[in-house]
Design a protein that fits this description.
Belongs to the RNase H family. By secondary structure, the protein is of the alpha/beta class. The protein contains five helices and five strands.
Length: 153
């Protein structure tokens, strides 16, 4: 790939979590395009879940993009990666029900994530959490910051 082509790819690392689970939570995202870097974070002071925060991070990052682009999205959540790359098409086909006919958990966020992905060309990557990947570590720190700010600390 040429320098121009790689500059057109937005690389995103996301993370989310809460303490305890369920409990107050936070999400973080690091967006890079060429030399540009944007850090984002937020949180929920009420009772949320790790999965909801893991889903919120890529939603917020993708929704922040102002035009359709190619995205390489890195998450340490197999739930998010598997959900968006393998399960969501079937859930949508089945009226947002699982294979066992149960309502899909976090359907509001899955629908938002799918809509956000539909605007872009998104390639999903799983990264092992806390394994020294700099932007994943930063996303984790931002998620913690988002949770603490949401709790008023």
């Amino acid at each position: 790939m040429s320098q121009t082509e790689t500059a057109e790819i937005v690389v995103i690392h996301t993370d989310g979590g809460c303490t305890p689970n369920p409990g107050p939570g936070g999400w973080g995202a690091v967006l890079r395009m060429g030399q540009h870097v944007r850090e984002m974070f937020g949180g929920d002071p009420e009772s949320t879940t790790n999965n909801r925060m893991e889903l919120t991070a890529p939603i917020m990052a993708l929704e922040a993009l102002t035009r359709p682009v190619t995205v390489h999205l890195h998450t340490d959540s197999t739930y998010v990666r598997s959900g968006i790359t393998q399960w969501v098409a079937g859930w949508e086909r089945n009226g947002w029900r699982t294979a066992s006919k149960q309502p899909v958990k976090n359907v509001d966020l899955w629908q938002r994530l799918k809509a956000a992905c539909d605007r872009h060309e998104v390639e999903w990557f799983w990264v092992k959490g806390h394994s020294g990947v700099a932007d994943n570590e930063l996303a984790d720190q931002l998620a913690t910051k988002g949770m603490l700010e949401a709790m008023g600390r």
